[in-house]
Amino acid sequence: MAAVDWQKEIQPLLKKYKGKKHPLEYNNMYELLVMVVLSAQDSDAHINKIAPDFFKAFPDMKALSKADDTSLYPLIGKVRNFGNKTKWLLGIAAQIKEDKNIPQTLEELTALPGIGRKSANVIMRESGLKAEGIIVDLHVVRVAPRLGIATGTDPKKIEKQMMDVLDPKVWGEVGMAISFLGRETCRPTNPKHADCVMKTVCAYYKESK
C-alpha cells in the first residue's frame, strides 16, 4: 500500500476550517491565556459562561497580579481542578505582571505554570504567531489515529508524528482543523462519514466499510 501524501490530502480539511476561531470566546491575548488555562479538563462552553464575570473583576494581567485565592475562588470555584488553576493563574500573573509581557514563543509559554504544549499552541495560533508545533487536544488524540496520520494516544507523540509528515506552513491550522472535524463530524460514536472531507484517505472509514 502506497504511503499517503498527507501534505496534499489534508488540504480539503484545511480549506474547510481555515482561520475559524477557537470556540473560546475571548477578546484579547490576556483573556485567551486565562481561558485556555481554565478550560483544561473542562468544556469551552462552561468557561465561556463564567468568563464575563471573571474579566469584569480582573480585566487585565495587572489586575490579576493583585488577586489572591479568596478573590478567585468565588469566580472559578465551579471549574474542574480550580485549586490548581487558581495557583497557576496567580503564578502566571505574578511572573508576567502586564498584558504586554505575555510571551510569544512556545518555549516561554510552556515555561509558565499550567501551560503545556497544547495550550501554548492554541495561544500562538489564535494570536497569529508563527506556529512552532501542532495543537493536539482530546479531539485530535481521537481523530488523528482514525485518519491514519498518527498512532497511539500520547499527545506529544501524535504531535511529533504529524510534524514529521506535514510542512511547518500548515502546523498552525492543522491541529485546530482536525479538532473541529472531531467536534462536528468524527464523533466518538457514530461518526458522520457521509459529511467527512477526509473519507477518501481515512483508515477508519476504509475499515468500517
UniProtKB/TrEMBL annotation:
Q: Does the keyword Magnesium apply?
A: no
Family that this chain belongs to: Belongs to the Nth/MutY family.
Keywords of this protein's UniProt record, alphabetized?
4Fe-4S, DNA damage, DNA repair, Endonuclease, Glycosidase, Hydrolase, Iron, Iron-sulfur, Metal-binding, Nuclease
Record's protein name: Endonuclease-3
Q: Which GO terms describe its biological process?
A: base-excision repair, AP site formation
Q: Name one GO molecular function term.
A: endonuclease activity
InterPro entries (UniProt xref):
DNA_glycosylase (IPR011257), HhH-GPD_domain (IPR003265), HhH_base_excis_C (IPR023170), HhH_motif (IPR000445)
Question: In this protein, which residues make up the domain named HhH-GPD?
Answer: 38-184
RNA-binding listed as a keyword = no
